[in-house]
Protein backbone atom coordinates (compact mmCIF):
# COMPACT_ATOMS: atom_id res chain seq x y z
CA UNK A 1 0.00 0.00 0.00
CA UNK A 2 1.15 3.52 -0.85
CA UNK A 3 -0.04 6.43 1.30
CA UNK A 4 0.37 10.14 0.52
CA UNK A 5 0.22 12.69 3.34
CA UNK A 6 -0.30 16.27 2.25
CA UNK A 7 1.23 18.59 4.83
CA UNK A 8 4.25 18.05 7.09
CA UNK A 9 2.71 19.60 10.18
CA UNK A 10 1.98 18.05 13.56
CA UNK A 11 -0.99 15.93 12.43
CA UNK A 12 0.61 14.67 9.22
CA UNK A 13 4.00 13.78 10.70
CA UNK A 14 2.45 12.15 13.76
CA UNK A 15 0.13 10.09 11.58
CA UNK A 16 3.08 8.96 9.44
CA UNK A 17 5.03 7.73 12.49
CA UNK A 18 2.05 5.92 14.04
CA UNK A 19 1.10 4.30 10.73
CA UNK A 20 4.62 3.06 9.96
CA UNK A 21 4.91 1.55 13.44
CA UNK A 22 1.62 -0.26 12.91
CA UNK A 23 2.40 -1.32 9.33
CA UNK A 24 6.13 -1.01 8.52
CA UNK A 25 5.51 -2.37 5.02
CA UNK A 26 3.28 0.60 4.03
CA UNK A 27 5.04 3.13 1.82
CA UNK A 28 4.40 6.64 3.22
CA UNK A 29 5.30 9.86 1.41
CA UNK A 30 4.73 13.33 2.89
CA UNK A 31 4.34 16.29 0.54
CA UNK A 32 5.16 19.66 2.12
CA UNK A 33 4.88 22.89 0.16
CA UNK A 34 7.30 24.77 2.46
CA UNK A 35 11.06 24.43 2.54
CA UNK A 36 11.07 22.84 6.01
CA UNK A 37 8.63 20.56 7.85
CA UNK A 38 6.76 21.48 11.06
CA UNK A 39 7.61 25.19 10.95
CA UNK A 40 4.41 26.06 12.79
CA UNK A 41 5.01 23.38 15.44
CA UNK A 42 8.46 24.83 16.12
CA UNK A 43 6.90 28.21 16.91
CA UNK A 44 3.87 27.14 18.91
CA UNK A 45 3.63 28.08 22.57
CA UNK A 46 6.14 30.87 22.07
CA UNK A 47 8.69 28.29 20.94
CA UNK A 48 8.05 26.14 24.04
CA UNK A 49 5.39 23.89 22.45
CA UNK A 50 2.21 23.54 24.50
CA UNK A 51 1.81 19.84 23.61
CA UNK A 52 -1.57 19.22 25.19
CA UNK A 53 -3.68 19.95 28.27
CA UNK A 54 -4.65 17.77 31.23
CA UNK A 55 -8.33 18.70 30.64
CA UNK A 56 -8.71 18.48 34.44
CA UNK A 57 -10.89 21.59 34.58
CA UNK A 58 -12.78 21.05 31.32
CA UNK A 59 -16.28 19.91 32.27
CA UNK A 60 -17.64 20.14 28.71
CA UNK A 61 -15.48 19.70 25.60
CA UNK A 62 -17.34 22.61 24.00
CA UNK A 63 -15.42 24.81 26.45
CA UNK A 64 -12.20 23.72 24.76
CA UNK A 65 -13.45 23.12 21.21
CA UNK A 66 -15.95 25.73 20.02
CA UNK A 67 -16.15 23.73 16.79
CA UNK A 68 -15.90 19.95 16.65
CA UNK A 69 -16.49 19.12 20.33
CA UNK A 70 -18.84 16.19 19.68
CA UNK A 71 -16.46 14.57 17.22
CA UNK A 72 -13.48 15.11 19.53
CA UNK A 73 -15.36 13.48 22.39
CA UNK A 74 -15.79 10.38 20.26
CA UNK A 75 -12.20 10.37 19.02
CA UNK A 76 -10.80 10.75 22.55
CA UNK A 77 -12.02 7.21 23.24
CA UNK A 78 -9.23 6.07 20.91
CA UNK A 79 -6.52 8.59 21.73
CA UNK A 80 -6.99 11.39 24.24
CA UNK A 81 -4.76 13.58 26.42
CA UNK A 82 -3.69 10.74 28.73
CA UNK A 83 -2.57 8.65 25.75
CA UNK A 84 -0.77 11.68 24.32
CA UNK A 85 1.11 12.26 27.57
CA UNK A 86 2.13 8.62 27.70
CA UNK A 87 3.14 8.47 23.99
CA UNK A 88 5.54 11.40 24.26
CA UNK A 89 7.11 10.16 27.45
CA UNK A 90 7.66 6.79 25.78
CA UNK A 91 9.67 8.65 23.13
CA UNK A 92 11.95 9.96 25.88
CA UNK A 93 10.38 13.43 26.11
CA UNK A 94 9.95 14.45 29.76
CA UNK A 95 6.81 16.52 30.26
CA UNK A 96 5.76 19.08 32.87
CA UNK A 97 2.28 20.29 33.81
CA UNK A 98 1.75 23.96 34.62
CA UNK A 99 -0.71 25.31 37.17
CA UNK A 100 -3.07 26.21 34.30
CA UNK A 101 -3.16 22.52 33.16
CA UNK A 102 -1.02 23.20 30.08
CA UNK A 103 1.52 20.48 29.26
CA UNK A 104 4.99 21.37 27.94
CA UNK A 105 8.22 19.48 27.35
CA UNK A 106 10.44 19.93 30.40
CA UNK A 107 13.07 21.37 28.08
CA UNK A 108 10.64 24.21 27.25
CA UNK A 109 11.88 23.85 23.67
CA UNK A 110 9.61 23.06 20.73
CA UNK A 111 12.66 21.92 18.78
CA UNK A 112 12.77 18.81 20.96
CA UNK A 113 9.28 17.87 19.77
CA UNK A 114 10.10 18.57 16.13
CA UNK A 115 13.37 16.67 16.43
CA UNK A 116 11.67 13.69 18.05
CA UNK A 117 9.17 13.40 15.20
CA UNK A 118 11.83 13.86 12.52
CA UNK A 119 13.98 11.15 14.09
CA UNK A 120 11.00 8.79 14.31
CA UNK A 121 10.16 9.48 10.66
CA UNK A 122 13.71 8.71 9.54
CA UNK A 123 13.81 5.52 11.58
CA UNK A 124 10.48 4.42 10.08
CA UNK A 125 11.64 5.27 6.53
CA UNK A 126 8.98 7.91 5.89
CA UNK A 127 9.68 9.76 2.63
CA UNK A 128 9.58 13.54 3.09
CA UNK A 129 9.39 15.84 0.07
CA UNK A 130 9.67 19.56 0.75
CA UNK A 131 8.99 22.38 -1.74
CA UNK A 132 6.30 20.07 -3.11
CA UNK A 133 2.97 21.86 -3.48
CA UNK A 134 0.03 19.55 -4.22
CA UNK A 135 -2.21 21.07 -6.88
CA UNK A 136 -4.84 18.38 -7.28
CA UNK A 137 -6.11 15.12 -5.80
CA UNK A 138 -8.25 12.86 -7.97
CA UNK A 139 -10.13 9.98 -6.41
CA UNK A 140 -10.46 6.97 -8.69
CA UNK A 141 -12.19 3.63 -8.24
CA UNK A 142 -9.10 1.86 -6.92
CA UNK A 143 -6.59 4.62 -6.16
CA UNK A 144 -5.96 8.35 -5.86
CA UNK A 145 -3.95 10.51 -8.21
CA UNK A 146 -1.84 13.17 -6.46
CA UNK A 147 -0.48 15.96 -8.64
CA UNK A 148 2.17 18.47 -7.67
CA UNK A 149 3.59 21.24 -9.82
CA UNK A 150 6.17 18.77 -11.19
CA UNK A 151 4.92 15.21 -10.53
CA UNK A 152 1.88 12.97 -10.84
CA UNK A 153 1.70 9.77 -8.75
CA UNK A 154 -0.80 7.11 -7.74
CA UNK A 155 -1.52 6.27 -4.08
CA UNK A 156 -3.90 3.90 -2.36
CA UNK A 157 -4.79 6.37 0.40
CA UNK A 158 -4.36 10.12 0.91
CA UNK A 159 -4.32 12.08 4.15
CA UNK A 160 -4.91 15.82 3.91
CA UNK A 161 -3.23 17.48 6.90
CA UNK A 162 -2.45 20.91 5.49
CA UNK A 163 -3.36 22.85 8.63
CA UNK A 164 -5.56 25.93 8.73
CA UNK A 165 -6.00 27.84 5.50
CA UNK A 166 -6.85 31.58 5.48
CA UNK A 167 -8.88 31.08 2.29
CA UNK A 168 -11.26 28.36 1.03
CA UNK A 169 -9.00 28.03 -2.01
CA UNK A 170 -6.41 26.43 0.26
CA UNK A 171 -8.38 23.16 0.02
CA UNK A 172 -9.50 23.64 -3.57
CA UNK A 173 -7.45 20.62 -4.68
CA UNK A 174 -9.98 18.31 -2.97
CA UNK A 175 -12.69 16.79 -5.20
CA UNK A 176 -16.21 18.28 -4.75
CA UNK A 177 -16.00 18.73 -0.98
CA UNK A 178 -17.99 21.18 1.14
CA UNK A 179 -15.65 23.67 2.80
CA UNK A 180 -16.72 25.79 5.76
CA UNK A 181 -15.29 29.22 4.97
CA UNK A 182 -12.23 29.77 7.18
CA UNK A 183 -11.91 32.81 9.43
CA UNK A 184 -9.17 33.66 11.96
CA UNK A 185 -9.34 32.38 15.51
CA UNK A 186 -7.06 33.00 18.51
CA UNK A 187 -6.24 36.64 17.86
CA UNK A 188 -5.68 39.80 19.87
CA UNK A 189 -7.89 42.87 19.45
CA UNK A 190 -7.02 46.49 18.84
CA UNK A 191 -8.68 48.83 21.34
CA UNK A 192 -10.10 52.12 20.11
CA UNK A 193 -9.21 53.81 23.43
CA UNK A 194 -5.61 54.96 22.95
CA UNK A 195 -5.28 55.88 26.63
CA UNK A 196 -5.33 52.15 27.38
CA UNK A 197 -2.05 51.79 25.49
CA UNK A 198 -0.25 53.56 28.34
CA UNK A 199 -0.83 50.39 30.38
CA UNK A 200 1.25 48.25 28.01
CA UNK A 201 2.63 45.24 29.84
CA UNK A 202 -0.05 45.20 32.55
CA UNK A 203 -1.28 41.71 33.37
CA UNK A 204 -4.61 41.18 35.14
CA UNK A 205 -5.38 37.71 36.45
CA UNK A 206 -8.86 36.15 36.31
CA UNK A 207 -10.51 38.77 34.16
CA UNK A 208 -13.83 38.28 32.44
CA UNK A 209 -14.16 39.66 28.93
CA UNK A 210 -17.25 39.53 26.73
CA UNK A 211 -18.66 40.77 23.44
CA UNK A 212 -21.44 43.22 24.27
CA UNK A 213 -24.94 42.12 23.27
CA UNK A 214 -23.97 38.44 22.95
CA UNK A 215 -23.40 35.37 25.11
CA UNK A 216 -19.74 35.20 24.08
CA UNK A 217 -17.53 35.54 27.16
CA UNK A 218 -14.28 34.15 28.50
CA UNK A 219 -12.23 34.18 31.69
CA UNK A 220 -8.52 34.15 32.33
CA UNK A 221 -5.44 36.33 32.30
CA UNK A 222 -5.76 39.53 30.27
CA UNK A 223 -2.68 41.23 28.89
CA UNK A 224 -2.78 44.92 28.00
CA UNK A 225 -0.52 45.75 25.06
CA UNK A 226 0.53 48.68 22.92
CA UNK A 227 -2.46 47.94 20.65
CA UNK A 228 -5.14 46.73 23.05
CA UNK A 229 -6.04 43.32 24.48
CA UNK A 230 -4.22 39.99 24.35
CA UNK A 231 -3.47 37.09 26.70
CA UNK A 232 -5.42 33.87 27.34
CA UNK A 233 -8.75 35.56 28.13
CA UNK A 234 -8.76 37.54 24.86
CA UNK A 235 -7.61 34.56 22.82
CA UNK A 236 -10.34 32.36 24.29
CA UNK A 237 -12.97 34.98 23.55
CA UNK A 238 -11.72 35.34 19.99
CA UNK A 239 -12.07 31.59 19.53
CA UNK A 240 -15.61 31.44 20.90
CA UNK A 241 -16.72 34.47 18.90
CA UNK A 242 -14.56 33.95 15.78
CA UNK A 243 -17.38 33.90 13.23
CA UNK A 244 -19.43 36.57 14.99
CA UNK A 245 -16.49 38.99 15.09
CA UNK A 246 -15.59 38.24 11.48
CA UNK A 247 -19.16 39.11 10.49
CA UNK A 248 -18.76 42.49 12.21
CA UNK A 249 -15.42 43.10 10.46
CA UNK A 250 -13.95 43.00 13.99
CA UNK A 251 -15.76 46.20 15.00
CA UNK A 252 -17.51 45.38 18.25
CA UNK A 253 -17.71 46.49 21.87
CA UNK A 254 -15.87 44.49 24.50
CA UNK A 255 -16.96 44.41 28.14
CA UNK A 256 -14.27 43.83 30.76
CA UNK A 257 -14.81 42.80 34.38
CA UNK A 258 -11.54 43.68 36.13
CA UNK A 259 -12.58 42.18 39.48
CA UNK A 260 -11.52 38.53 39.18
CA UNK A 261 -14.95 37.17 38.39
CA UNK A 262 -16.80 38.99 41.18
CA UNK A 263 -20.34 39.94 40.21
CA UNK A 264 -21.83 43.41 40.49
CA UNK A 265 -23.32 42.85 43.94
CA UNK A 266 -20.03 41.53 45.34
CA UNK A 267 -18.12 44.50 43.95
CA UNK A 268 -20.77 46.87 45.33
CA UNK A 269 -20.14 45.45 48.81
CA UNK A 270 -16.39 45.92 48.34
CA UNK A 271 -16.89 49.57 47.38
CA UNK A 272 -19.21 50.09 50.35
CA UNK A 273 -16.41 48.91 52.63
CA UNK A 274 -13.89 51.17 50.87
CA UNK A 275 -16.22 54.17 51.31
CA UNK A 276 -15.88 53.84 55.06
CA UNK A 277 -12.18 54.70 54.77
CA UNK A 278 -10.66 58.17 55.09
CA UNK A 279 -7.84 57.25 52.69
CA UNK A 280 -7.48 58.80 49.24
CA UNK A 281 -9.05 56.80 46.42
CA UNK A 282 -5.65 56.63 44.72
CA UNK A 283 -4.06 54.94 47.73
CA UNK A 284 -6.66 52.33 48.61
CA UNK A 285 -7.68 49.88 45.92
CA UNK A 286 -8.20 46.14 45.15
CA UNK A 287 -4.87 44.41 45.71
CA UNK A 288 -4.86 42.54 42.38
CA UNK A 289 -4.81 45.83 40.45
CA UNK A 290 -1.57 47.80 40.07
CA UNK A 291 -1.48 51.44 41.17
CA UNK A 292 -1.07 52.56 37.56
CA UNK A 293 -4.02 50.50 36.41
CA UNK A 294 -6.15 51.71 39.32
CA UNK A 295 -5.46 55.37 38.51
CA UNK A 296 -6.48 54.66 34.93
CA UNK A 297 -9.78 53.13 36.10
CA UNK A 298 -10.47 56.06 38.41
CA UNK A 299 -10.03 58.37 35.44
CA UNK A 300 -12.45 56.20 33.41
CA UNK A 301 -15.01 56.58 36.21
CA UNK A 302 -14.38 60.35 36.56
CA UNK A 303 -13.31 59.94 40.17
CA UNK A 304 -10.50 62.23 41.37
CA UNK A 305 -7.52 60.28 42.78
CA UNK A 306 -7.14 63.00 45.43
CA UNK A 307 -10.67 62.46 46.73
CA UNK A 308 -11.19 60.65 50.04
CA UNK A 309 -13.16 57.42 49.92
CA UNK A 310 -15.62 58.59 52.59
CA UNK A 311 -16.40 61.64 50.44
CA UNK A 312 -17.38 59.58 47.40
CA UNK A 313 -21.04 60.17 46.55
CA UNK A 314 -23.48 57.52 45.27
CA UNK A 315 -23.25 58.69 41.65
CA UNK A 316 -19.46 58.43 41.64
CA UNK A 317 -19.62 55.02 43.34
CA UNK A 318 -22.02 53.73 40.67
CA UNK A 319 -19.76 54.96 37.87
CA UNK A 320 -16.80 53.21 39.46
CA UNK A 321 -18.88 50.05 39.93
CA UNK A 322 -19.73 50.10 36.21
CA UNK A 323 -16.09 50.54 35.19
CA UNK A 324 -14.91 47.72 37.45
CA UNK A 325 -17.54 45.20 36.35
CA UNK A 326 -18.46 46.17 32.77
CA UNK A 327 -15.82 48.49 31.35
CA UNK A 328 -16.61 49.15 27.68
CA UNK A 329 -14.09 49.29 24.84
CA UNK A 330 -14.97 49.72 21.17
CA UNK A 331 -12.57 47.68 19.07
CA UNK A 332 -10.62 48.93 16.08
CA UNK A 333 -10.15 45.57 14.38
CA UNK A 334 -8.23 42.43 15.17
CA UNK A 335 -4.50 42.33 15.48
CA UNK A 336 -3.05 40.31 12.60
CA UNK A 337 0.49 39.19 13.20
CA UNK A 338 2.66 36.11 12.72
CA UNK A 339 1.78 34.70 16.12
CA UNK A 340 -1.81 34.19 14.95
CA UNK A 341 -1.85 30.53 14.00
CA UNK A 342 -5.33 29.09 14.15
CA UNK A 343 -8.30 29.36 11.84
CA UNK A 344 -11.80 28.00 12.29
CA UNK A 345 -13.31 26.40 9.23
CA UNK A 346 -12.14 23.72 6.84
CA UNK A 347 -13.78 20.58 5.53
CA UNK A 348 -17.31 20.33 6.93
CA UNK A 349 -17.64 17.56 9.51
CA UNK A 350 -20.84 16.48 7.77
CA UNK A 351 -18.62 15.34 4.88
CA UNK A 352 -16.50 13.06 7.09
CA UNK A 353 -16.94 9.54 8.46
CA UNK A 354 -16.51 10.02 12.21
CA UNK A 355 -14.86 6.61 12.66
CA UNK A 356 -12.14 6.92 9.99
CA UNK A 357 -12.07 10.68 9.24
CA UNK A 358 -12.40 9.79 5.55
CA UNK A 359 -14.60 11.72 3.14
CA UNK A 360 -17.94 9.92 2.89
CA UNK A 361 -18.04 10.28 -0.90
CA UNK A 362 -14.30 9.68 -1.35
CA UNK A 363 -13.35 7.08 1.30
CA UNK A 364 -9.73 6.87 0.15
CA UNK A 365 -9.17 10.47 1.24
CA UNK A 366 -8.79 11.16 4.98
CA UNK A 367 -8.39 14.42 6.88
CA UNK A 368 -6.66 15.39 10.11
CA UNK A 369 -5.87 18.50 12.14
CA UNK A 370 -7.03 21.93 11.09
CA UNK A 371 -7.96 20.79 7.60
CA UNK A 372 -11.13 19.70 9.40
CA UNK A 373 -13.62 22.19 10.81
CA UNK A 374 -12.23 21.58 14.30
CA UNK A 375 -10.42 24.19 16.37
CA UNK A 376 -9.79 24.79 20.03
CA UNK A 377 -9.05 27.60 22.41
CA UNK A 378 -5.52 28.41 23.54
CA UNK A 379 -3.92 26.00 26.00
CA UNK A 380 -2.69 22.97 24.02
CA UNK A 381 -6.11 21.96 22.71
CA UNK A 382 -5.31 22.43 19.02
CA UNK A 383 -2.19 20.28 19.17
CA UNK A 384 -4.19 17.65 21.03
CA UNK A 385 -6.66 17.65 18.12
CA UNK A 386 -3.71 17.15 15.75
CA UNK A 387 -2.38 14.16 17.69
CA UNK A 388 -5.83 12.62 18.11
CA UNK A 389 -6.96 12.96 14.49
CA UNK A 390 -3.58 11.85 13.16
CA UNK A 391 -3.68 8.76 15.36
CA UNK A 392 -7.26 7.86 14.33
CA UNK A 393 -6.41 8.13 10.61
CA UNK A 394 -3.24 6.04 11.05
CA UNK A 395 -5.24 3.24 12.64
CA UNK A 396 -8.01 3.48 10.04
CA UNK A 397 -5.52 3.08 7.19
CA UNK A 398 -3.58 0.34 9.02
CA UNK A 399 -6.72 -1.75 9.39
CA UNK A 400 -7.09 -1.86 5.62
CA UNK A 401 -3.43 -2.28 4.77
Distance between the termini: 6 Å
For the residues shown, what is the average pLDDT? 95
CATH topology call of the largest domain: FAD/NAD(P)-binding domain
- Give the spatial strand order of the biggest sheet: 12-15-14-13-16-17
- Can you tell me the CATH superfamily of the largest domain? FAD/NAD(P)-binding domain
CATH class of the largest domain: Alpha Beta
User: Which class do the helix and strand fractions yield?
Assistant: alpha+beta
Give a count of the beta strands, DSSP E runs of length 2 or more. 19
Number of domains: 2
What is the helix content?
25-40%
Low-confidence stretches: none
Assembly type of the shown chains? single chain
Tell me which CATH architecture of the largest domain applies here.
3-Layer(bba) Sandwich
Strand content: 15-25%
Please summarize the sheet with the most strands.
6 strands, antiparallel, barrel
- What is the overall number of helices? 12
How would you characterize this protein structure?
With 401 residues, the chain is of the alpha+beta class. The protein has 2 domains: 2-184 and 341-400, 3-Layer(bba) Sandwich (FAD/NAD(P)-binding domain); 188-335, Helicase, Ruva Protein, domain 3, CATH 1.10.8. Helices cover 31% and strands 23% of the residues. The chain has helices at residues 10-22, 39-43, 61-64, 69-75, 81-90, 110-123, 231-240, 242-247, 264-274, 291-300, 314-326, 381-400; strands at 2-6, 27-31, 52-53, 95-97, 102-105, 127-129, 134-139, 144-148, 152-155, 157-160, 179-184, 188-191, 203-211, 217-224, 228-230, 253-257, 327-335, 343-347, 365-367. It has a 6-stranded antiparallel barrel with strand order 12-15-14-13-16-17. Strands 6-2-1-10-19 form a 5-stranded parallel beta sheet, with helices on one face. A 3-stranded antiparallel beta sheet has the order 3-5-4. A hairpin with a 4-residue loop joins strand 7 (134-139) and strand 8 (144-148). Helix 1 runs parallel beside helix 6 (110-123), helix 1 packs parallel to helix 12 and helix 9 crosses helix 11. The radius of gyration is 24 Å and the shape is elongated. The N and C termini lie close together (6 Å).
